[in-house]
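Objective 1b. Sequence-to-structure analysis of Thiolase.
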Amino acid sequence: MTAPQVTLVGLGMTAMSLRPGATALELACQATAAALADVGLEPADVDGLLVGSSQGIRPDRLGVGFAAQGGFADLRLLEHVEIKGATTIAMIQRARHAIATGEASTVVCVFADAPLAEGKGSGSLYAHSGGNTGVRGLERASGLLGSVPTYALLAQRWLHITGTSTDALCAVATTARRWAAGNPDAVNREPLDEDGYLASTMIAEPLRLLDCARPVNGAVAVVLTGQESIGTTRLKIRGAGRDHPVRRRRAGAESWFGGGRRAVDNALAEAGIARADLDIAELYDPFSIVTLVLLDEYRLTGDTPVGTFVRDGHTGPGGTLPTNTGGGQLSGFYLQGMTPLAEAVIQLRGAGGGRQVPDAAIALVGGIGGRMDHHAALVLERAA
């Protein structure tokens, strides 16, 4: 018996809010309902549900209990998946496997988060991740609270090793804003030039405020199926790959970057395509430095140094590799790995409006987790 062709057919998104409001559970219900409506399905038509949530033990963290509130029943597949920023692609891989092996026929993958709450900023939640023991405990005792100072250390190290200047960070941030100008879902759409970037607050050198992602309260859901009768705009999952370097942050090995290329190599090999065949790249970009590191690590700039590549506009509108075409997480919205996936779906559907990349047919979607500890890659193609 031939395995069914697994395609991504539905997309649902909530509004991306910078204000406290609905809970993660409520947002997940909205996004899931929108994704099902996108393909004319009801919860009863779904037999698989995969749920992703932001890290940390929080009372409002989305879990498998969402199945009841979301109106699902008689599921053959129900799991909570959590590999930090690699979770979304891991969910897609799991759903694809389940459909191909007959564990399920139609699967919803949903991620929701609501870090913005009355009386506290989102940073207070992220600063408490990681625990208080071992290496993380030493870091916390030294004042490394949350991801910004950690990624600042990574940035300092990478810029030094590669000889890249900090103006490359500026180029990433301003390019993201140019893309966001055409994205009605982006939360930062105001024009941004070099002067505006340099005027932004330095948080942890060399990372400024505008080098950091913008958390939102929101949710995204997608529908995958092996049934050819479902959906009119179908995206084929051509390839997928993962790589987990398992860093121990000890002397004798690079503590912050290096590793991860295997995820992209495997995804491209399965898809049977080369890097030159990619029309767009949607990469996880919680900080501007991550865009630079991933472009370099994944060998997406050819023989051109990464700093030169971004400064010369190759990742921007009209560039040779349009990257993070909705503004990414810097200017679009930060919903972990769902941000790049949602934008890839929009682009491949030709629904990008003012930011649409002409004739976009093949997309690379990348996700990372932790402090570059987990890498995941996905190749999507618009079905003929």
